[in-house]
Each structure stands twice: as C-alpha cells, then as structure tokens.
Hints:
Elements (H helix, E strand, L loop, with lengths): L8 E2 L8 E8 L3 H12 L4 E4 L16 E2 L5 H5 L6 H11 L6 H9 L1 H10 L22 E2 L19 E2 L13 H15 L3 E3 L3 E7 L5 E8 L2 E13 L8 H7 L17 H7 L5 E2 L4 E5 L3 H4 L3 E3 L13 H11 L5 E5 H8 L14 E3 L2 H8 L5 H13 L21 E5 L4 E5 L2 E2 L6 E3 L5 E7 L16 H18 L9 H6 L6
Parallel strand pairs: 1-8, 2-3, 2-10, 3-7, 10-20
Antiparallel strand pairs: 4-6, 5-6, 8-9, 9-10, 11-18, 12-17, 13-14, 14-16, 15-16, 19-20
Bound molecules: flavin-adenine dinucleotide (FAD).
Flavin-adenine dinucleotide binds next to helix 1, strand 8 and helix 14.
Amino acid sequence: MSDAKITQISAKDVNDWDFEADVVVAGYGIAGVSAAIEAARSGAEVLVLERSAGWGGAASMAGGFIYLGGGTPLQKALGFHDTPENMKAFMKAALGPGTDEDKIDVYCDESVDHYNWLLDAGVSFKESYWGQPGWEPPYDDGLMYSGGENAAPFCSLIPPAPRGHVPQMSTKRTGEQGGGYMLMKPLVETAEKLGVHAEYDLRVQSLVVDDAGRVVGVASRRYGKDVYAKARRGVVLAMGSFAYNEDMVRQNAPRIFGHPAASIEAHDGRAIQMGQALGAETAHMDATEVAFFCDPQLLVRGILVNARGQRYITEDTYPGRIGQATLFHQDNQAFLIIDEAAFDEGFASESATPELLLQPTWVGETTGDLEVEIGLPAGSLQSTVELYNRHAAEGSDPLLGKNPRWVKPLGTPIAAIDLRGRTGGFTLGGLRTDVDSRVLHVSGNPIPGLFAAGRCTSGVCAGGYASGTSLGDGSFFGRRAGVSAAQETNDHQVTASARRANPMPLG
Length: 507
Ligand SMILES: Cc1cc2nc3c(=O)[nH]c(=O)nc-3n(C[C@H](O)[C@H](O)[C@H](O)COP(=O)(O)OP(=O)(O)OC[C@H]3O[C@@H](n4cnc5c(N)ncnc54)[C@H](O)[C@@H]3O)c2cc1C
C-alpha cells in the first residue's frame, strides 16, 4: 500500500489484522469522539485510530462555539426565547443555498436533547451572555450571537436568538486553549470511561472491502509499516476537511486556495477520497467558511466599502458572513472607513482577538483626501459617506439595515483600514451522508458498513456559515454515526432509523 495511492483494498488481500473491534473510528476530534461514545453506549467494542500523538484535532483548538438552540436551558436561563422552528428557518436561510433540509430539521428538533447530552458528558456552560460585537467572548461567558441572527436581513424576518454555546473555560487563551478544548476533554474522558480504546500515530489510508462491497476495516500506515484494523460492524470516518489538500482546494474551492484558516494540516481530504474510491457521492465541495481578519468592535463602528468605494454589507452582522461577502462577491477588496472618535472607542473595547484591532492604514482630514490616499474612484467614497451620514443623522441605515445602536454619522479626521485579502477559511463540503450518517454511494444507496461525520462530510452548511455549526454538526451527526455503526448488521434491508427505534441485541 503506497502513501499516495487512494484505492480500496480487498479483504482477501489482508492476511493478518493488527486490530479488531466492532466499530473502528478514524480520527479523534469532535466527530470521532462523539461517534465513539455513542457506539460504546450502544454496546459496541470501539477502537479509535488517530493520526497525531493525541486526541483533539481542530476541535480542541477551536473557540468552542457549538450551534444549539430551540430553547436550550441556557437560552432560557438567560431570558432568550427560541424554538426549533425559528432555528430551522434561520439555518435554512443563512446556511444555504441548497441546505440539506432533512439534516437541519433533525438537528434543530433534537438540539435541546443534544445540549443535555453534552451536559451529561461533563461539558459545562456558564449562565452568562456576551452581548458585545466579537468573534467570540473574551471571557468565559456561555452564550453569544454567532451567525448574524440579530442583524439584517435576518433579524426582521426570523425572531432572533443567540445560539453560540461556549463551554466554560477558566484559563482561556484564544488560539491555544479555548472552549473547544473544554468540549473535547470531558468527551474523551467519557469515551475512556466507556472503554473506548485509542491508537495514536497511525494514519488511516484506505478502506478494506469484502466481496459483497461491504466495508470491513481500514488500512493505515504507522512508522513506515502497514497496519490493518478490522471492523466487525462498521467504520466511521471522522478525519476532518480538505482545507489543507491543495489539489482538492484548487479544484473545488479555489477562492480559499493558499489561505487555509481555522483548520489543521491533518485536514488533508483523505477521508473524502477514501469514500470516493468506493463510489461515494460528495456534496457542496465548493462551500467554505471564511474568516474576516478584523475585530468586529471596529467593524460595527465604521463602514465597509469595496474597491468602488461602495458599501456592500451591514457591518454589524456575523463577521464570517462579511468574510464570505468580501471574498466571494467583492474580489477580496475591502476598506473599513472609520472616524477618529469611533476608532478610539472600538480600539479600547473588550475583545477576544486584540490582535485584530488593526491600526489605520491611511488618515485624511476630509473624506476627499482619504479617497485620494486609498486610490478609490473620484467621488465614490465621498458620495457613500455623504449618503450614509444623511441617514445616520436620524439614526437609520435604510440601505443595509445596520442596527441603530451602531449608526452614527462619520466625522473627521477620518481613516481607512486596508482589509484587502484579509480572509481565510476552511472547507465545508465532503461526503454526502444521510441523517443516520451513512455514507451514500452515487447510486443513492448507503455503502454498507461505512459511516461518516464532521468536516469530511457535507453537514448543515451548504454555502453560508455560522460559528458553532462545525462543532455542532460534528458532534450531533458523530453521535448518529456511532449508533448506526454499532447497530450495523449484514442485513442491509433494515435501515439504521428503524434499528434506532427498535434496537437489536448486539453481539
Ligand atoms: C482556531 C479554530 C477555531 C475554531 N472555532 C470553531 C468554533 O468556535 N466553532 C465551530 O463549530 N468550529 C470551530 N472551528 C472549526 C472546527 O474546530 C472544525 O471544523 C471541527 O473540529 C471539525 O470536526 P472534525 O471532527 O471533522 O475534525 P477534527 O476535530 O479536526 O478531528 C479530526 C481528527 O482526525 C485526525 N485525522 C486526520 N487524518 C487522519 C488519518 N488519515 N488517520 C487518522 N486520523 C486522522 C486529525 O488528526 C484529528 O484529530 C475552529 C477551528 C480552529 C482551528
């Protein structure tokens, strides 16, 4: 078996299995640990194979938002009303176009249950709401808006509620040890208590398939040797996205080529290719999350203009939505126009990302001066600021609907922060799975014995993004993958849903 060759391996060619378990999970991040827990709770013997020297993956580096709602105890305790219907309406509107409606429906209907599942596994959320603009709370607050629900255009269409749930962390260090670590740690401890066994430093490479086309194990490389693990019931792929596979990004999501962010190098697309080698279908391979590298405390206090000096998005929305709008529709060209007073106020604000409180690139005594400094078409910025100020004097923004809280006429001196090219992101597309996390063949049928979850699959996001949807759908559909794999039998006629309703004895 070579490192580069992506092919399926016939079970007939495997003479010795190095490991054997009912369920083999590839990848020990958020989707993997959730699958492992539920497979073990369903009575399966579980083996996790992890490429690096420890558990965690991107999940343990993450800020930790988990997108939950529909009336979680935390939302209620903090005085926010939410329903599964409102949550569905927002997700279908904001995460598309082309969302998997079945997935979003089940995700929202069972979101409160999922919150309680996390609590039961030892994840804790502080009863505290962070209401300031930001990428994440700077302290240990448990709840924050994380998708633009409270900004135009959604706030007037769908009753808003904050759904970014963040596990509590006492010694938070953004980018090193955040809420994601406090999500992973108790989940891994739960898995260990359930008897889940993990093998590290082992790179899963290919699927092993029997004569009937059923996945019966995986082939890996460890210290230059082939290692085979047999799965008596099922294999769960949970190996992350393809953000670090340059060829796949160039082919599928070229706009983020060269700018992977909020991801790790282990996200090399291998799980997707392993599935494809068996005829698996993929979905939304062009979809990407896009981070915008400027602190929202500055963004809300200024106006964002493109290379024509025109505004294009309300500045108080979810910064990831700004990132997508800038990269996809403005050729990655953006300038934040902000006056001195607003800059000073924003710069002095509390932030989880102080490194993104950027200094002005150009300063002008008048908007005309600034326009020349930036090199914008003559008159473009001046007319944009004049129009914005005319309505801002009355506290409104009829063009883009910015919340009056942030609408103030721009004065002088006036500055611009150069935000051209300040985006990066990770991929959201992957293997197409059903709501039971079964990997679907291009024929539409599940591939027997093969399950997947997390960013190697296409989850609840088809195009748009909200912070928390990756840890959210990774954990939610990871759990379902674990249950389905544990209950997989050779009788392919029985659906995983039916088995969930009428569990069969295992063993
Ligand atoms: C700084 C940062 C902040 C983020 N903030 C958030 C946030 O607040 N909310 C949110 O929802 N998302 C956030 N994300 C994104 C989120 O962490 C990931 O999208 C999510 O962890 C994906 O889950 P996963 O299980 O698919 O992958 P991971 O959690 O990365 O787990 C995949 C695991 O598979 C292993 N693996 C890969 N290849 C192999 C192989 N061949 N064999 C064996 N093992 C393999 C990896 O080493 C890894 O341990 C953030 C990411 C980063 C880096």
